[in-house]
Specification:
Length: about 210
C-alpha cells in the first residue's frame, strides 16, 4: 500500500488550506493509499539551525540532527510515496511554519555536490491559498516568488511538483465583525461558492494522480 502525506502549513486546522488537503487525501485514498494529515502548527519545532551535521562526511547524509516534534515527520516523509505541501500565502510567500518545515526537510536532504541523496523520487504538489484574486496574483508576480522553492523541490525530491492556487479565499464567516473594508463580502462569498468546489475537485484529482503516477 502506498503512503500519502499532506502537510498543513496553516495554523487553522479547518481553514481553506486544510480543506484542500483533505480533498487531496480523499483522492489519494480513492487510489488505495494510506494517508496522513500533519498540522505543522500543532508541532513544536524550529527551522534549520545551520548546524551542518547533515553534511558531515562522517555522518550518514539525509538526516536532520535536530530532535523535536518534526523529527518523526521527516523520517515518515522518506518512507512516503507522495507528499502535498499546503500553505496559505502570507505577505506574498509561504507561511513561516511551512518555510521552517521546508528548510528542515530540504537542507537535510541536500549536500553541496552533484549527488542526489533523497532515497527515492518523491512526487509532490504545492497547494497555495490566498486572499488575492488571480489578477492581483499575476500583477504582483507572486508565482515568480514561489518558483525558487519549487525549483529546489525538483532538485531534491527528483520530480517537478504539481501546483494548485486557490484565489480569493474567505477568511471570516462574518466580515461585518472585522475591519475589512477592502473586501466586498458578497463578492467573496459568491466567488467561493462558485470556485472553491472546483479547487477542491482539483485537489482531489492531484491527490489521486500523485498515487497513481
Ligand atoms: C499573516 C497573514 C498574512 C497574509 N498575507 C497575505 C498576502 O500577502 N496575500 C494574500 O493574498 N493573502 C494573505 N493572507 C490571507 C491568507 O493567505 C488567506 O486567507 C488564506 O486562504 C488562509 O488560509 P487558511 O484558511 O488555510 O488559514 C494573509 C493572512 C495572514 C494571517
Amino acid at each position: 500500500m502506498k503512503n500519502f502525506i499532506a502537510i498543513n502549513g496553516s495554523p487553522r486546522r479547518n481553514g481553506n488550506t486544510s480543506t484542500l488537503l483533505q480533498h487531496a487525501i480523499q483522492g489519494a485514498q480513492s487510489a488505495g493509499a494510506k494517508t496522513e494529515l500533519v498540522h505543522l502548527y500543532s508541532l513544536n519545532f524550529k527551522g534549520c539551525t545551520s548546524c551542518f551535521a547533515c553534511k558531515l562526511k562522517s555522518r550518514p547524509h539525509g538526516t536532520c540532527a535536530m530532535k523535536d516534534d518534526l523529527s518523526p515527520v521527516l523520517e515518515r516523509i522518506k518512507e512516503a510515496d507522495a507528499v502535498v505541501f499546503g500553505s496559505p500565502i502570507y505577505f506574498m510567500n509561504i507561511s513561516a511554519g511551512m518555510a521552517a518545515f521546508i528548510e528542515r526537510l530540504f537542507f537535510s536532504n541536500y549536500i553541496y555536490s552533484d549527488e542526489f541523496i533523497f532515497p527515492k523520487k518523491l512526487p509532490s504538489a504545492y497547494f497555495y491559498t490566498m486572499n488575492m484574486t488571480q489578477t492581483q496574483f499575476e500583477k504582483f508576480g507572486v508565482a515568480e516568488q514561489l518558483k525558487m522553492k519549487e525549483f529546489f523541490t525538483k532538485r531534491i525530491l527528483g520530480v517537478e511538483p504539481k501546483i494548485l492556487y486557490a484565489f480569493d479565499t474567505v477568511q471570516f464567516k462574518d466580515y461585518s465583525r472585522y475591519e475589512s473594508s477592502i473586501f466586498d463580502p458578497d463578492e467573496k462569498f459568491a466567488y467561493r461558492e462558485k470556485q472553491f468546489p472546483v479547487d477542491c475537485e482539483a485537489a482531489y484529482d492531484i491527490g489521486r494522480e500523485l498515487i497513481l503516477q
